[in-house]
Amino acid sequence: MLLGFRRLLSYRxxxxxxxxxxxxxxxxxxxxxxxxxxFRLICGEDGVSLGEAVREQHGKDESVHRCxxxxxxxxxxxxxxxxxxxxxxxxxxxxxxxxxxxxxxEGGVNxxxxxxxxxxxxxxxxxxxxxxxxDVTVEPGVTRKALNAYLRDTGLWFPxxxxxxxxxCGMAATSASGTNAVRYGTMRENVLNLEVVLVDGTIIHTxxxxxxxxxxxxxxxxxxxxxxxxxxxxxxxxxxxxxxGIPESMxxxxxxxxSIQAAVKSxxxxxxxxxxxxxxxxxxxxxxxxxxxxxxxxxxxxPTLFLEFHGSGQSLKDQVNTTADITQSNGGSDFQWAQEAxxxxxxxxxxxxxxxAAQALRPGCKAYAxxxxxxxxxxxxxxxxxxxxxxxxxxxxxxxxxxxxxxxxCLMVVDPNNPEELHRMYLFTDRLAxxxxxxxxxxxxxxxxxxxxxxxxxxxxxxxxxxxxxGLKATLDPNNLMNPGKIxx
Length: 489
Ligand SMILES: Cc1cc2nc3c(=O)[nH]c(=O)nc-3n(C[C@H](O)[C@H](O)[C@H](O)COP(=O)(O)OP(=O)(O)OC[C@H]3O[C@@H](n4cnc5c(N)ncnc54)[C@H](O)[C@@H]3O)c2cc1C
Known about the structure:
- This protein is an alpha+beta fold and 489 residues long.
- The protein folds into 2 domains: 43-246 and 454-489, Uridine Diphospho-n-acetylenolpyruvylglucosamine Reductase, domain 3 (2-Layer Sandwich), CATH 3.30.465; 249-438, FAD-linked oxidases, C-terminal domain (Vanillyl-alcohol Oxidase, Chain A, domain 3).
- The protein contains 18 helices and 18 strands.
- It has helices at 2-23, 26-43, 52-57, 79-92, 144-151, 168-174, 181-184, 187-190, 222-226, 260-272, 285-295, 313-329, 341-352, 354-359, 379-392, 419-438, 454-461, 463-476; strands spanning 48-49, 72-74, 96-99, 116-119, 126-130, 135-138, 156-157, 191-197, 203-205, 235-242, 244-245, 249-256, 279-283, 304-311, 336-338, 366-369, 399-402, 407-414.
- The chain has a 7-stranded antiparallel beta sheet with strand order 15-12-14-13-17-18-16, with helices on both faces. It has a 5-stranded antiparallel beta sheet with strand order 5-6-10-8-9. The protein has a 4-stranded mixed beta sheet with strand order 1-2-4-3.
- Helix 10 (260-272) runs antiparallel to helix 12.
- The longest helix is centred in the first third of the chain and has 22 residues, at 2-23.
- The model is unreliable at 1-23 (pLDDT under 50).
- Flavin-adenine dinucleotide (FAD) binds next to strand 3, helix 6 and strand 10.
- Keywords: Acetylation, FAD, Flavoprotein, Mitochondrion, Oxidoreductase, Transit peptide.
- InterPro entries: FAD-bd_oxidored_4_C (IPR004113), FAD-bd_PCMH (IPR016166), FAD-bd_PCMH-like_sf (IPR036318), FAD-bd_PCMH_sub2 (IPR016169), FAD-linked_Oxase-like_C (IPR016164), Oxid_FAD_bind_N (IPR006094), Vanillyl_alc_oxidase_C-sub2 (IPR016171).
C-alpha cells in the first residue's frame, strides 16, 4: 500500500520537477548558450533544434510518463559528429539522452533532468551486408521494417519483432524482443557487435573493430552490457546483427480455448514436446474482443492462441500435427488457418495493434503495459491470479503475451487525469511484479526499467548487484550525464 503511494508521489514529483526546470533554467540556459554554437558548428544550423514542438516530440515515448522535453535536440549525421557533440556536452556537464524512434514504453527518452536529446534518425544507412555469413551492420536510425525491406530480395531477414517499427539500435538499447523470440531469441542473442560513443566522445567497438564472429569467448561480454543499457552508458552508433534465412513455408493458425488454463497449459506442453514453434501468442477474452472490434475480426471471445510455424514440407506438417493433438487434448477448437501471406499479415497486424485496440476500449485514456516474465511452469498460475486481481480491482487490463517465453502484458487502460484510478493501477502493477518475483521471474521481460521500475529492479537483483551496476555506471559515466535517472535511482 505504502509503496504504491510512494510511487504515485514520486511520479507527481517528477512532473513538478520538470515544470520547475522549465521555469527556472537561467543558469542552464547560460551553459547551453555556450554549447549551442559548438553544436551548430558540428552538425549545421539544420542539425540543431530549439523549437518547442520538436523538443516536446522528443521528450516522451509511448508510455504514460508525462512529457519532459530536452533543452535542445541535435540531429547528427555520422559517428564523428556524435562523438564531437558528446565531447561538448561532457565539457559543459550537460546530460545526453539518445533517441531512436520514441516507441519505448518506460519513459526512457524523457529528459527528466533536461539536457540534449541526440536524435539518430539521420544516420539511417545499412552499411555492410554479408549474405554468406548471415550478418549485417546498420546505423542507429535504421528501423527493423526498413532493414527487412532492404533484405527482401536476399532471402534473408531479421526476426526480432517488437511490433512497433522501432530503430534497431533503440531495440538493442532496451533489449527488445517480441513475437518471434520463442524461436529466434531476443536482441541479446542477435547482436554480434556494437559501436558505442562514450560520454566523453570516445568511440569503442564492444567486440573489437570489425569483428562479427557468431560466437566468442573473448573476455567480458561488453556487447551484452550495452544491450539493455537504455542509453545510460553510451550512444550506440552501429549494430552488427545476425540474420536468418527466410523459411521455405510459414503457416499461421488461431485456436480458441474454454479457459486460460487450457490455453497456457497447451503452450507449456507444445514447448515441452520440442515443437520449434515460431510464434505463440496468448490473448485473453477481453483482448480478443478488443482486437475483433479494432481490426474487424470475428474470433470467438474466449482465451485464444495465435500460432505460427516455420519450416518446410514434412517438418511443418509434423509441427502442426503435434500442436493440434496437444491443443485438442486441452479442449481447444479446430485451428483457423492463415496460410497466404496477406491473411497471415492481417492476423499479425491485429496482434501488433493490440496496444491500440486496448486503448480504443476507453477513448481518451492512455495504455500502460506491464511486462513480467516467469519460468514457463509458473505461467498458468500467474495469469489466472492476475486476471482475478484485475476483476477484483475493477481495472481494464486486457492480457496479451509472448507466452512461449513466459512473458505477458496487461495493457492497463487508465485515465491519466484520474489520480484515484492511477493509484489503483500502481498498486496492481506492484502486486503483479511482486507475484512474478515470488515465482522466480523478472519485473521486465523486454520493455526495460526506464523510470517506473527502478525500485523493483533493486528488489529483483538485490543491493550487491545494484552496487556493481552503480560501479559500472560510475566507471563509464562518472558525472552521470548519460540519460540520468533511468534504470538506477
Ligand atoms: C504498439 C507497441 C508495441 C510494442 N511491443 C513491444 C514488444 O512486443 N516487445 C518489445 O520488446 N517492445 C515492444 N514495444 C516497445 C518498443 O518498441 C521497444 O522498447 C523498442 O525497442 C524501442 O526502440 P526505439 O527506437 O523506439 O527507442 P526509443 O523509444 O527512442 O528509446 C528507448 C530507450 O533506448 C535508448 N536509446 C534509443 N536509441 C539509442 C541508441 N542508439 N543508443 C543508446 N540508447 C538508445 C533511449 O535513450 C531510451 O532509453 C512496443 C511499443 C509499442 C508502441
